[in-house]
């Protein structure tokens, strides 16, 4: 009687978890998908541009209300504040930094004073996307990539673009203006939408119904007390991963359905938006590859608007500032901040160590995969694969460790510390050991 | 008749027979069988037998639930003098424990919880007609922070209701013991109800909570066993109150002088002190501790020989075990082993 038999478990899983998950998954997003589609179709009607912008603003408002109800005012306030700053600084050449500071203050005030934790946790994602859009627009204006301050309706259309307002991802202002021109409906566009939607539901099922019961029901590995802790940590980690993929594929679906997310080369249109690469995270080459594959648009944003601008202060400082910016965008959560900071150190040390090993051994053991024409002497030897395999295993262990304490609700600081103590601070110690090793081979 | 004709006739009769069963013959056979089966189940009260006949599909589930309760009872008390063993050796709807003790209280609660648990599980799996998903939770906003709810969750209310109707159907006399049984049955069901677990997962950009999927799950039955065991440890001694001129007990109150406080509806209650369970006594469900295995090295522990054997002492049995060990293969070609032996002592109460 201690646990259900496997057959009984799978029966109960089917009716108790698979069905409700699919039902809820579709039930909560079908209206969003419908609005994206309506917006796309209406843009094909040959409306004047300001009506197109207006229609996506209306769709975006309704969608925000659908998900956040009256709490959507915080998102609206943020966007109005951003436009006010842009307008007041329209003759300045430092709109980017100034707007960034303003947004930072708003987010900190919001988190600390204006609303409760649960509400903030719900809409943190949307706030983050709005902030990223506004900051990118400001910096692009400074650099002349966008030649003038957009009109209010254009700005609001960009901010409230129905395809990205709830589940992201961030897209640049120029991408949005391209989307407004409204490409033809096509089979490849429709297929991309459907496939992404199916993938998102599949990831939702894995996140809810497979990952939490991976051991011993799906994979009959029991293990002793120590191993069981790590197996459970891996389950939590995997569940969190697939929740992220669900949101990413859903973002792909809504963005494509609403008419954005394509690339165009000489009349060759491809609907190829990619937000996350699950295979690169679950079977990682390195932690560097993991952090970029987790959310590609966000990686691009952080690289363009934070990392490159901070590089003048040194690469280590730039990396730490990048992770700090990422943590701030995620809100003042000790737990997320701690994870991201740890991740920053892990990726930096791995990167410099592998770079050094690559130079010493003259082999393809860098954090990123070598192009086919690289000049390393050793490329396909067995020991090269062994070294890369070892780093992959390390990355898997780091992922298990860092993902083990994600919960449906925000944890308190003591929970993160407690979880890492349970796992003996393994990743921290390993990272320290690698750093010592790196200093030794300098 | 020719051979072909006979085969043809056989096929016709076979088809007609199948059609007859499809049309309803099978239902008649099933109903008849149910009636016979219900009458043959020992220990069913008349009202329970009626329920059994009207819901034959549920009676199997009820039996499984009661058996689950008894198994859990035996697990929870496996180290005690009383170990729930007299119950399991008879029918699953066994005889009533005559003594209204704490042990009887636990037994009634765990069986009521077991029946409710089994019915709820069967509903979730769709194994029972007349019940399925918890329909209140489909497509509505629950009060839980306004989250949208959906899908099929364990419908515990049906299981609780059915358990109440069936288990309480046995308690028809107006006596202190009846009131005790009804109270403890309800405690078992309440423990199940309060330990339903709501599992949720958040989904949103970078781990935020823009959307959430939720479902309720039944707790593992062992958890209920531990909870009821704790309640057993702190069970309340009660006595009946005769509040009418008919001199029949109306309600139970805590057994203290000049106190009229009623027990809480989450406390197990008993009306008689427990016997020591040292000697066999079917009235109290005790089979005695003679022959029980005990542990000589444990002092002041229920499984220790001093307490388990009630001071009567214990017998020591010695066993030797011999097996082949340290086997080695020699080239070529034989295996040579040493002989290992182990001596163990087993203590049983006199």
UniProtKB/TrEMBL annotation, chain A:
Alphabetically ordered keywords of this record: Acyltransferase, Endoplasmic reticulum, Membrane, Transferase, Transmembrane, Transmembrane helix
Segments traversing the membrane: 59-86, 98-115, 155-173, 310-328, 334-353, 382-403, 423-441
A Gene Ontology cellular-component term: endoplasmic reticulum membrane
InterPro entries on file: LPLAT_7/PORCN-like, MBOAT_fam
Cellular localisation: Endoplasmic reticulum membrane
This enzyme's EC code(s): 2.3.1.250
GO molecular function: palmitoleoyltransferase activity
Topological type in the membrane: Multi-pass membrane protein
GO BP, sorted A to Z: convergent extension involved in gastrulation; Wnt protein secretion
Pfam family, one: MBOAT
Top-level class of the enzyme under EC nomenclature: transferase
UniProt superkingdom: Eukaryota
PANTHER family: PORCUPINE, PROTEIN-CYSTEINE N-PALMITOYLTRANSFERASE PORCUPINE ISOFORM X1-RELATED
Protein name (database record): Porcupine O-acyltransferase
Species of origin: Danio rerio (Zebrafish)
Automatic annotation (TrEMBL), chain B:
Name of the gene this protein is made from: wnt7ab
One of the record's GO molecular function terms: frizzled binding
Function: Ligand for members of the frizzled family of seven transmembrane receptors.
Lipoprotein among keywords: yes
InterPro entries: Wnt, Wnt7, Wnt_C, Wnt_CS
UniProt xrefs under SMART domains: WNT1 (SM00097)
Record localization: Secreted, Extracellular space, Extracellular matrix
Biological process according to GO: animal organ development; canonical Wnt signaling pathway; cell fate commitment; neuron differentiation; positive regulation of JNK cascade; tissue development
PANTHER family attached to this UniProt entry: PROTEIN WNT-7A, WNT RELATED
Signal peptide positions on this chain: none
GO CC annotations on file: extracellular space
The name this protein goes by in its record: Protein Wnt
Keyword list, A-Z: Developmental protein, Disulfide bond, Extracellular matrix, Glycoprotein, Lipoprotein, Secreted, Wnt signaling pathway
Main subcellular location: secreted
Protein family membership: Belongs to the Wnt family.
Annotated organism of origin: Danio rerio (Zebrafish)
């Amino acid at each position: 009687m201690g646990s259900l038999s496997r057959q009984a478990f799978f029966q109960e899983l089917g009716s108790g978890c698979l069905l409700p998950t699919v039902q809820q998954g579709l039930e909560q997003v079908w209206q969003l998908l419908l609005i994206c589609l309506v917006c796309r179709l209406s843009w094909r009607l040959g409306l004047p541009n300001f009506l197109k912008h207006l229609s996506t603003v209306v769709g975006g408002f309704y969608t925000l209300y659908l998900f956040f109800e009256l709490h959507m005012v915080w998102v609206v306030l943020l966007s109005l504040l951003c436009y006010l700053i842009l307008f007041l600084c329209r003759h300045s050449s430092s709109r980017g930094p100034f707007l960034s500071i303003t947004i930072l203050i708003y987010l900190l005030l919001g988190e600390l004073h204006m609303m409760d934790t649960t509400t903030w946790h719900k809409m943190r994602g949307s706030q983050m996307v709005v902030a990223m859009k506004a900051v990118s627009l400001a910096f692009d204006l400074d650099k002349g990539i966008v030649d003038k301050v957009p009109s209010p309706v254009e700005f609001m259309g960009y901010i409230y673009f129905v395809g990205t307002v709830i589940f992201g991802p961030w897209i640049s202002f120029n991408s949005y203006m391209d989307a407004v021109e409204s490409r033809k409906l096509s089979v490849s566009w429709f297929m991309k939408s459907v496939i992404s939607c199916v993938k998102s539901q599949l990831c939702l099922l894995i996140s809810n119904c497979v990952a939490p019961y991976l051991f011993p029901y799906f994979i009959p590995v029991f293990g002793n007390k120590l191993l069981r802790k790590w197996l459970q940590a891996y389950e939590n980690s995997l569940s969190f991963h697939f929740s992220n993929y669900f949101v990413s594929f859903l973002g792909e679906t809504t963005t494509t359905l609403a008419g954005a997310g394509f690339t165009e080369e000489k009349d060759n249109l491809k609907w190829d938006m990619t937000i996350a690469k699950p295979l690169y995270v679950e079977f990682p080459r390195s932690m560097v590859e993991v952090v970029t594959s987790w959310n590609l648009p966000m990686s691009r944003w952080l690289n363009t608007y934070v990392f490159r601008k901070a590089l003048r202060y040194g690469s280590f400082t730039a990396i730490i500032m990048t992770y700090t910016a990422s943590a701030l965008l995620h809100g003042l959560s000790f737990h997320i901040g701690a994870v991201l900071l740890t991740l920053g150190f892990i990726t930096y040390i791995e990167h410099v160590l592998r770079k050094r090993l690559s130079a010493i051994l003259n082999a393809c053991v860098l954090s990123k995969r070598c192009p086919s024409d690289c000049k390393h002497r050793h490329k396909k030897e067995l020991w090269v694969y062994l070294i890369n395999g070892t780093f992959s295993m390390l990355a898997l262990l780091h992922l298990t460790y860092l993902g083990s304490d994600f919960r449906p609700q925000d944890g308190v600081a003591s929970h993160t510390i407690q979880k890492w103590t349970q796992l003996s601070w393994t990743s921290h110690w390993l990272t320290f050991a690698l750093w010592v090793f790196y200093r030794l081979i300098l | 008749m020719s051979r072909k004709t006979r085969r043809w006739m056989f096929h016709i009769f076979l088809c007609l027979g199948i059609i007859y069963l499809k049309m309803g013959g099978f239902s008649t056979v099933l109903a008849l069988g149910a009636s016979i089966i219900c009458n043959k189940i020992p220990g069913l009260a008349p009202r329970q037998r009626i329920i059994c006949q009207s819901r034959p599909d549920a009676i199997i589930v009820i039996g499984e639930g009661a058996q689950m309760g008894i198994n859990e009872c035996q697990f929870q008390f496996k180290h005690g003098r009383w170990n729930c063993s007299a119950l399991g050796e008879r029918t699953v709807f066994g005889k009533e424990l005559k003594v209204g003790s704490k042990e009887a209280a636990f037994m009634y609660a765990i069986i009521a919880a077991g029946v409710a648990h089994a019915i709820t599980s069967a509903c979730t799996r769709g194994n029972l007609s007349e019940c399925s998903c918890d329909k209140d939770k489909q497509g509505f906003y629950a009060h839980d922070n306004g989250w949208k709810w959906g899908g099929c969750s364990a419908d515990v209310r049906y299981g609780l209701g059915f358990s109440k109707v069936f288990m309480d159907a046995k308690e028809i006399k107006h006596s202190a013991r009846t009131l005790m049984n009804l109270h403890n049955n309800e405690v078992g069901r309440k423990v199940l109800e309060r330990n339903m677990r709501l599992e949720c997962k958040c989904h949103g950009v970078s781990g935020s909570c823009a959307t959430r999927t939720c479902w309720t799950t039944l707790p593992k039955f062992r958890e209920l066993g531990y909870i009821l065991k704790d309640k057993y440890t702190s069970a309340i001694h009660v006595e009946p109150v005769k509040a009418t001129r008919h001199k029949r007990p109306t309600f139970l109150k805590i057994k203290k002088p000049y106190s009229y406080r009623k027990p809480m509806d989450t406390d197990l209650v008993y009306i008689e002190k427990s016997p020591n369970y040292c000697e066999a006594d079917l009235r109290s469900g005790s089979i005695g501790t003679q022959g029980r295995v005990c542990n000589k090295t444990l002092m002041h522990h229920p499984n220790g020989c001093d307490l388990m054997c009630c001071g009567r002492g214990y017998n020591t049995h010695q066993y030797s075990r011999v097996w082949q060990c340290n086997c080695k293969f020699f080239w070529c070609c034989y295996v040579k082993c040493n002989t290992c032996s182990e001596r163990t002592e087993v203590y049983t109460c006199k």
